[in-house]
Amino acid sequence: MGIKFRITVMNFLQFFIWGAWLITIGGYWFQNKQWSGTEFGIIFSTMGIASLFMPAIAGIIADRWVNAEKLLGIFHLIGAVVLFMLPEVNDPSTFFWVMLLNMVFYMPTISLSITVAYSALNGANLDVIKHYPPIRVFGTIGFIVAMWTVSLLKIETSATQFYVASAASLALGLFAFTLPKCAINKNVQTKSFVESLGLKAFALFKNSKMALFFVFSMLLGASLQLTNAYGDTFLHDFAKVPEYKDLLTVEYPAIIMSISQMSETLFILAIPFFLRRFGIKKVMLISMVAWVLRFAFFGYGNPAEMLWMIILSNIVYGMAFDFFNISGSLFVETQTDSSIRASAQGVFMMMTNGFGAILGSWSSGLIIDNFFKDANGNYEWQGIWLTFAAYSLIITILFAIFFKHKHNPEEVAVVKH
């Protein structure tokens, strides 16, 4: 097999594992186990907790001691075992610790897979900028295929979804050992532990503009988790309404939710135009408005006559997700010194996928349990989604007022080259 094909398979499986359960675990939790929303919020925060420290630690290990492709394989093999154990857990507290263990080994594989891909492409004398993006798209395709697989097999509320993820993790764990060897950089050993962890980048908080940007990254990062956590469960709950229960949207909600990932692949292509035309601040504001619409459309949608709102919500997700994550990383790229640029990207990811994810997961669970459950324990979804929309709107207004940044087209040109 050629290098590009092997790296494509790696990316496909990398995100297939995640897609097999990330969107549908809510259905398993609320429809099968019927545990509380507060407990679910804590479970969903495990991604954020693991993201705070494991990618950096895995990076140090891969740089100094274990080849990245071998570490990728080891982590996925361990992850396969942990995922296989999840269905046997019948206590929410134990479920938290097992899921945290799963995330501890899965989250660093995202950055490790990028390292392996870059190393393999460079080793084959291929242009990374030209060849990697089309390969990475297959990661999103893998996520979508996993969602469709789980939905068509009708295991969205079943523990079987974890067995599907476990099998994919086992396959990638074994496959990783066949990938091209990533060299260990001996020079990295001369770095201090503080430098290796990227802690020097926290000096950016002394800059008021960067500090404000990172704070807003955390606040918007909270929004990123909400539809991943509750979207599938929201559609499943329509089965309780007699006139909706036999509709395809309710029978296969993960397929409907996969429109979000399809949209994501398309909006990536629009980013260069929007950045050149409007600048980074306006593109991020567009993203924030898209989050307001994402939640509002869910609030007023249903699987019948208002299905178009649910579909439109999934379409604007691509803009909401891509425009902030990618334009945000480009902002960090253009505003930081080259000596701490990689570490600064780590801080950006830590604020969004770490602290932001924890904030969104924990607070949403508490808010939903305390304010949006009726006497029979049913969730008041319109109130939930409109509350999330109001939160995103407040963040949008505050960002527009307080974040000051003048558009410079040359910044985009620098990043492009």
Explain what this protein looks like in three dimensions:
The structure is a single chain. With 417 residues, this protein is an all-alpha fold. It has two domains: 1-197, Growth Hormone, Chain: A (Up-down Bundle), CATH 1.20.1250; 201-417, MFS general substrate transporter like domains (Growth Hormone, Chain: A). It contains 18 helices and no strands. It has helices spanning 3-19, 25-33, 37-44, 46-64, 68-85, 92-123, 128-152, 160-176, 193-196, 208-236, 248-251, 253-257, 259-278, 280-300, 307-335, 341-371, 381-402, 409-416. Helix 4 packs parallel to helix 6 (92-123). The longest helix has 32 residues, at 92-123. It is globular, with a radius of gyration of 21 Å.
Helix-strand category: mainly alpha
CATH level-4 homologous superfamily of the largest domain: MFS general substrate transporter like domains
Mean pLDDT: 87
Assembly of the depicted chains: single chain
Key features?
417 residues; Growth Hormone, Chain: A; 2 domains; 18 helices; globular
Question: Would you spell out the secondary-structure blueprint of this structure?
Answer:
Elements: H1 3-19, H2 25-33, H3 37-44, H4 46-64, H5 68-85, H6 92-123, H7 128-152, H8 160-176, H9 193-196, H10 208-236, H11 248-251, H12 253-257, H13 259-278, H14 280-300, H15 307-335, H16 341-371, H17 381-402, H18 409-416
